[in-house]
Structures are given as structure tokens and as C-alpha cells.
Amino acid sequence: MKAIPVQVVYSRCFGYICPMLQAIGYYITLPLLYLISLLPYPLFYGLSDVLYVLVYFVFGYRKKIVIQNLTHAFPEKSEEEIKKLTRKFYRYLCDTTLETFKTLTISRKQALKYCSISEEGVALFDKFTDAGQSVLIVMGHFGNWEWSGNAFRLQAKADLFVLYHPLSNPYFDQLMQRIRSRFGTGLIDMNDTFRQMVKNRNKVSATAFIADQTPASGENAYWTKFLNQDTPVYWGTELIARKMKYPVIYASVKRVKRGYYFITTELLTEHPELTREGEISEMHTRKLEQDIMEIPETWLWSHRRWKHKRV
């Protein structure tokens, strides 16, 4: 009998076991997530305080990366100031993580109570919708970007599409899709962005780009100074805006106080096809930088934003 290589046996076994473990983890976790989402707000944020102790003091989740990012972004701050800012960030991180799952059961009234768009912002979006013009929204991992989609769908007229990166666990990927689309938001796989936008071009819509993602490499990116560091920026936001000729609106999701967010907007350009190369990328990067400097703890400092070097 011909022997089967060990790596083949391992691959076949792992191929069956891994999906099974993913399913088990999902079905064990799901009831807990629903229970958390149903908690009254005092208990909900009390749980977030407990989570903060575990994440920051016990597990130290990406603490080295966070401190390094903050130190490079704010070289003028003392070590003690960086430590204080780090703790504030982790409190915010725990809050916004749990707030994402709150969407599982939150009512429309509550969704608008805790995250809303300014009257001027709604008027700006509706002006383009009434004119039959689709727009592109650009924002960052700042404030509560997940709740901002709920606010838009409940206040503005246009259909909303958001780009998302599929999760490796298909069960939790479906859960996140359910959360993000609960109030009618459409989802576009970021690996298929342009084709899907062309497909949707007959609909009057707004498509939201989270523009502070880290590019796969620094070679095909727009380079600029961002938070005192050479930083690559995806060309995608700018290139698609220019090709589709969609006005570009910057959305700022600021935390007013714990659990409450307010969205303001600014029209960056109504005619992106007339802008210079790099102009749109520079504009939205500068706007995000201003927001971060104002409320630094509410940006996602735990992601590896500066892993590429300028080439």
C-alpha cells in the first residue's frame, strides 16, 4: 500500500477540523453577543470597563504597537502623557468594540439618539440625491465608524454602500454583514469595489470608503506626511472618485461623550475629475489628521499603519 504523506493527512484533517471549530466558536459566542447587546447601558459600559482591564492590563493587546504609534505621532509628548493617552485609547477601543454588537438589537430611535448626522450634513447628502447624483464618502477609523452607517441610513435619502473586508471565519463574516446591513446598508467587498460600483451606477447612492487602511505595499500608493511620519495612502478612493465623477464628501464621526457620537460633513470636491493627481488623497488625509489631533484617543492606534517604508 502506498503511504500517504504526513502533510497530506494533516491538510485533510485540518480541512475538516478547522471549519468545525469555527462553527463551534461561533455558535457558543453568538448567544453571548446578543446578551451583551441587550444589557442596559450602565451595565453595558460597566462590562466595557471590565473588558478594558483584561485587554490593557492582563493581555496587553498590541500595547507595544499602540505606544510606538503614539510616540512617533506625538514626539512632543512626555512618556507619562503617552501612557495616559494609551489608557484612554484602550477604554475607547473596548467601548467601540462592544458598541458594534449593540447594533444587533438596538432600536431605530436609540440608534439615532447615540449617533446622528448634523442637519447641514443631511442637507448636503440630500441635495445631491435630489439632483440624481451619487457621491463618495471618505472617512477614517475614527469615532464609531460602524454606527455612522446606521445614522446615514436612518437620516439621509440615498442608498448607502460601505466597503468591507471579508473575515476569514465565514460564520463571523456573516454576523458582521448582518450587523452592518441591519438598517438597509449595502455591502461591497473591497476586493471588488470598482466593478460593484459600476454595477450600481444606475442607483443614486453614497459609497463609504475607510481611507486610512494600510495598502498591501508601499509601491503603488500615494505617499504623504501624516502624523509626523511618511505614510502610504490607497489610491483607490481618489481614482474611483475621478473615474466615476462622484463628488467627494469627508465625514467626521466625533465622540461627544461616552456612547454618543455626532457626524459632521464637508464637501471636498464636487468635480473630482478636475482635480490634480494626489489632491483628493491629500485633502482627506489632512482632514483626518485634524480630527485625530483634536481627539487622539478615538482613532484606531492598534493597527499597523506604518509597516511600509517609502520607496
Could you characterize the architecture of this molecule?
The chain has 311 residues and is of the alpha/beta class. It has two domains: 1-35; 113-298, no CATH class. Helices cover 51% and strands 17% of the residues. It has eleven helices and nine strands. The chain has helices at 6-38, 41-59, 63-73, 79-102, 108-114, 119-130, 145-155, 170-180, 193-199, 236-244, 279-294; strands spanning 115-117, 135-139, 159-164, 186-189, 205-210, 222-226, 229-233, 248-257, 260-269. A seven-stranded mixed β-sheet has the order 1-9-8-2-5-3-4, sandwiched between helices. Helix 1 crosses helix 4 (79-102) and helix 2 (41-59) crosses helix 4. The radius of gyration is 21 Å and the shape is globular. The termini are far apart. The model is unreliable at 4-16 (pLDDT under 50).
Instruction: Quickly count the domains.
Output: 2
As laid out across the biggest beta sheet, the strand order is 1-9-8-2-5-3-4
Give the amount of beta strand, in percent. Answer: 15-25%
**Total helical segments:** 11
Q: How far do the termini sit from each other?
A: 55 Å
Overall outline: globular
Order of helical and strand elements: HHHHHEHEHEHEHEEEHEEH
Beta strands, count: 9
Major beta sheet, specifics? 7 strands, mixed
Low-confidence stretches: 4-16
Whole-number average pLDDT? Answer: 93
